[in-house]
Amino acid sequence: MEEQILKILRAFRGITPDADFTARSRSIVAGAPQRRTIARIGFFDSMKLGTAMVLASVLLFVLVGGFSYFQLTNTASVAASSFDFEMLNAEARKIDIRIQLGEATYFNDSTQQMAAALNDVSETTTDEEIGALLDEIVL
Amino acid sequence: MLEGEDILIQNAQDGNKGAFGQLYDYYIPKIYRYILLKVRHKYEAEDICHDVFLSAWQNLATYVSKGHPFSSWLYQIARNKVIDHYRTQKNHSSIDNIDEQFVKVVSTIERSVDNALHFQKVKTAMAKLSADQQDVLIMRFVEDLSHREIGSAIGKSEGAVRLIQHRALHTLREFMEKDEQKEA
C-alpha cells in the first residue's frame, strides 16, 4: 500500500498549470509595481542621498547663520544709535543722588528709632547697665 | 534550484522584470502543484498561485538568502496563502466531493480514468492529514525537496521533518486501507 501511495505521489509531478493561466498571470505580475526598501536603494543611490543630505544641511546652516548674523548686526546698529554718553552720565549722576538720598532717609529713620529705644532703656535701666549696653554696641 | 538563481534574484530585486520572469517560469509548476494538492478546486489553486507570485514580486526586497533557498521562501508564501484561503472561505464544501477539474488534470498524466480516481482518493485522504504532514509529503515525494529544504520552508528541523514524513505515510496508509474496506 505504501509503495502504491508513493507511486501516485511521484506521478503528481506531471501536473502542470494551464498555459493560458500561466501567460495571463505572468503578465499581470510583471505589470505590478515592486515595493522597494531603503536597503535595496543601492550603493550609488545611497551616495546621492548622502550627498544631497549633506548639501541640504550646509545650506540650512548658511541660511540660519546668515539670518542670525543679519539680525545681530541690525540690533547692534540700533543699540549703538541710542548710546548718548552725556545722557548716560546724567543718568548715572541721578542714580548716585538717588542712592544718597535713599541712604540718608534710612539713616534718619534708624537714628530716630535708636533714640526712641534709648529713651525706653534709660527709663528702665541704670547708668551702669546703659554703659554695658553701649560697650556691646561699640564692640 | 535554477542555474544562476542568485544573480537572477539580485537582478529581480533591482527591478528587472525579465529576471523575475525566469524565476516565475521555473517555479510556477512546483508551486501550482503544491497548492492544487492542498485545495479542493483547480480554480482555487490558480487564484492562490497567482497571489503567491504577485506577493513574491512585490516583496522581493524582503528576501535575504542566508542559507535559505529561494524555493523555501516561495513555499512559505504559498503555505500562508493557503492558510488564509481556508480562514476566509465561507463555503465549506465536503472534502469527499470529487473535483472533476482535478480528475481532468490528472487524466492528462494518466491515460486511464480509473487511475485518475485513485489519484483523487489519495488527494482526499491527504486532506485529512495535518498541514505539516501534507506539506512534507508533497515537498518530499512530489517536488523531491531535501529534508533540509523542507525544514526551511515549514520552520522545522531536519529531524522533525523525517519524523513527520514517517507518521504522515503511516496515517495516510491507514486512511486508504479504511476507505478500501468501506468500498469492499
Considering the chains and any ligands shown, give keywords for the structure.
heterodimer, A: 139 residues, mainly alpha, 5 helices, 0% strand, elongated, B: 184 residues
What this model shows, in words?
The complex is a heterodimer of chains A (139) and B (184). With 139 residues, chain A is mainly α. In chain A, 82% of the residues lie in helices and 0% in strands. Chain B is mostly helical. Chain B has nine helices and no strands. In chain B, 39% of the residues are buried. The model of chain B has no long low-confidence stretch (mean pLDDT 86). The interface between A and B is large, with 31 and 44 residues.
Put the structure in a nutshell.
The complex is a heterodimer of chains A (about 140) and B (about 180). With about 140 residues, chain A is mainly α.
Q: What is the beta-strand fraction of chain B?
A: under 5%
Q: What would you call the structural class of chain B?
A: mainly alpha
- Main beta sheet of chain A: strand number and arrangement? none
Structural class of chain A: mainly alpha
User: What are the low-pLDDT stretches of chain A, counting only 5+ consecutive residues below 50?
Assistant: none
Measure the end-to-end span of chain B: 44 Å
Q: Give the SSE string of chain A.
A: HHHHH
Helical element count of chain A?
5
Q: What's the rounded overall pLDDT mean of chain A?
A: 72
